[in-house]
Design brief:
Chain lengths: 127, 471
């Protein structure tokens, strides 16, 4: 009986200590990042001017009923390249115009040799 | 000695003999060599975080080759003088190849009969076993024996010296310096709410800590040696932060004996982000939530970008001083980048320095995974708990993303919450990919980069909390 009591006390102590660690840890992490959120939200407000208070929250654009097909990515094109192209296209968007990537493929052989292209670029640059 | 005897002697003194001496645990080294080779394969063939996994795996291979001694510690010991050396020392003819250490022992009257006077007038104490000590007397004539030693110095292995950079917590902050130089915090600044997603994704760390500690309540925990101390549990839990340097930094401070297993688990899971995360993201979100399109982020001014590292450093270090090495170096690197006035330093920190530190960090962390410490039931548990930490972190981010989706009236795509588990930039790419598979005209990458870089700060803060509590 005594043994069971000791085990129960140990269990309770362990639960209490671990639970407290989780609570304190998570609260401190959240508090720190909440403070940073607040500080940099103030930054944003100052940067945009107090009159424009609404741009910090992203706006939703309704999804079209017929969504375009997923982009066809040619074999051998790395995911990093796909991501960069996606980011570049996203950067082009002004929030109203919609763009879709339909196909990504590696560029084929250059139309003229690299050195010839470099020569043309050098000769035509002044103009 | 004939040819055959010489050959047998060479064999017996070789690493092969030790490796195939199964009674003395040679099989453990063979298993470790096998594991190291599998990791080399994964790094080269599958390209699982090769920049770190390859040096880690090779370090593991190197340390498990018997008699290689690459991780042998430096030893300093005192070797007592022989009688000849003592006599030479008294004569003044001792050739001092090593530093001499002298300790003194007072002699009682009972030792007087054993004291002899040499021809040159010096006194020596000659014990019954033949040992000789030089004797000196003070002003009152009391005798004391000089016990002479030479300081024996045994050089340590190459990786042991390099490992000191891990032990003293030098390499991970240097890696953070390079990461800071490479990271654009613009997406985070343009949407500061992303910080909260970075915080929520640290849920995995704390849930796993709890799980690791509660394992000790299992009735067979002691028999299977799966009891984890608070320090060990904290080191395992930090895998959920999906940040290799942070995991190594914290583990080297709290539970260095688990460093090999934790580093391997952390980098393996980071490489497996595209496999681990999507099912969790899809399970916790609806098609409608995944299809939310977020609009273009605002442009962040240069002033904001310069002030960001300064403010983050001040706030985080004042709040959690133990996070200073990680946060401080991360933000210093970012200040280098954003200031635009130290281009040479920026390039060095993100290229040459980062590469050099990556090599020594990887190979030395791998070298801590020797058979004795790695082949334990605990290692398997660490790998399982690491996976749980990672999954819980992803779930925490996504669930908080859902909360933001609800509170903002559907303006936030919950998928970007999964990127809160650091693993820059792969976790953000996964959010982009999963979002685009639902709605091909959706570009979440830059929105996901906000929580992604917030996760780096969040995991460093979490490491600071654990270090404060258990360091």
């Amino acid at each position: 009986m005594n043994c069971f009591l000791t085990a129960a006390i140990d269990t309770a102590a362990l639960l209490s200590e671990s639970g407290m660690t989780v609570l304190i840890g998570f609260c401190v992490v959240f508090a720190a990042l909440l403070l940073l959120t607040f500080v940099f939200w103030i930054f944003g407000v100052v940067a945009r001017g107090k009159s424009e208070g609404s741009t910090e929250t992203p706006k939703i654009i309704p999804t079209p009923v017929s969504a375009p097909a997923a982009p066809v990515v040619e074999d051998g094109v790395p995911e990093e390249v796909v991501a960069v192209i996606a980011a570049a296209v996203a950067a082009m968007s002004d929030g109203n115009t919609r763009y879709a990537v339909r196909r990504i493929r590696a560029a084929r052989t250059a139309t003229r040799p690299v050195w010839a292209a470099a020569g043309i670029a050098e000769n035509t640059q002044p103009f | 000695m004939n040819f055959f005897d010489a050959f047998v002697q060479i064999w017996n003194e070789s690493g092969f003999a030790r490796l195939f001496n199964f009674e003395n645990g040679g099989w453990k080294n063979l298993i470790m060599i096998g594991i190291a080779c599998v990791l080399v394969y994964l790094a080269i063939k599958k390209q699982y975080e090769p920049l770190l996994l390859l040096p880690i795996a090779f370090g593991m291979l190197l340390v498990n080759l018997p008699l290689g001694g690459v991780m042998d510690p430096q030893r300093n010991s005192l070797v007592p003088f022989t009688n000849e050396e003592t006599l030479a020392y008294i004569d003044g003819t001792y050739e001092q190849n090593y530093p001499v250490s002298i300790s003194y022992a007072s002699l009682d009257q009972q030792y007087e009969p054993y004291i002899r006077t040499l021809d040159n007038g010096s006194e020596v104490l000659m014990l019954n076993d033949g040992t000789i000590y030089k004797v000196e007397r003070d002003a009152e004539g009391n005798a004391q024996a000089l016990i002479l030693y030479w300081e024996h110095f045994e050089q340590g292995g190459l990786l042991w010296y390099l490992y000191q950079g891990v032990k003293f917590g030098i390499y991970p902050p240097l890696i953070f310096l390079g990461i800071g130089c490479m990271t654009d915090f613009g997406p985070l600044l343009s949407n500061p709410k992303s910080f909260l997603l970075g915080a929520a994704a640290q849920l995995g760390i704390f849930i796993t800590f709890l799980g690791a500690r509660l394992l000790g309540l299992l009735p067979f925990a002691e028999d299977f040696n799966i009891l984890f101390t608070s320090q060990e549990a904290a080191s395992i839990a930090i895998i959920g932060g999906a940040d290799g340097p942070t995991a190594i930094f914290l583990t080297s401070k709290l539970a260095p004996h688990l460093l090999g297993a934790i580093a391997v688990a952390a980098y393996s899971y980071m490489a497996l982000v595209p496999i681990i995360q999507p099912p969790i993201m899809k399970a916790l979100t609806t098609k409608k939530e995944r299809s939310v399109v977020m609009t273009q982020l605002r442009t962040v001014s240069k002033t904001e970008k310069i002030l960001f590292p300064i403010f983050v450093t001040i706030i985080c270090v004042l709040l959690l001083p133990s996070a200073a090495p990680l946060i401080g170096m991360l933000m210093l690197g970012n200040l280098f980048r954003e200031s635009g006035v130290v281009e040479r330093l920026t390039k060095t920190a993100q290229n040459e320095l980062m590469n050099i530190v990556t090599i020594v960090l990887g190979v030395t962390v791998g070298a801590t995974a020797n058979a004795a410490t790695f082949l334990q039931p605990k290692t398997l548990l660490i790998i399982c708990l690491g996976l749980i930490a990672f999954c819980m972190g992803t779930a925490g981010g996504v669930l908080f993303g859902k909360l933001m989706y609800l509170f903002t009236g559907g303006k936030v795509n919950p998928l970007i919450g999964a990127a809160g588990v650091s693993a820059v930039p792969m976790a953000a790419r996964v959010a982009q990919k999963v979002g685009q598979s639902e709605n091909p005209s959706n570009f979440l990458l830059m929105h996901a980069m906000g929580p992604n870089v917030a996760g780096v700060i969040g995991s460093a803060v979490a490491a600071g909390v654990l270090l404060t509590l258990f360091g």
